[in-house]
Amino acid sequence: MFFFRPKKIILDCFTYMPHAYDHFKLDHAKKFIPEWWKSLPRELSEIDNMHPENLGKVQPGFTMKKCSGFISNYSEGIILPLWSDIGFSVNRDDGSPPQLRPQFAGVPTQISEHPKEQRGGIWSTYQHVKIISPWFIRCNRDVQWTWNMPMWNFDELDGIQVLPAIIEFKYQLASHINLMIRRHPNENRHIMLEAGQPLVHLVPLADNRNIEIRSHLLDTAEFIRYTQRGDTASFKFRDIYRSNKKYNSCPHLDSIIKK
Question: 186 Cβ partners below 8 Å, 6+ apart?
Answer without folding.
Answer: 92
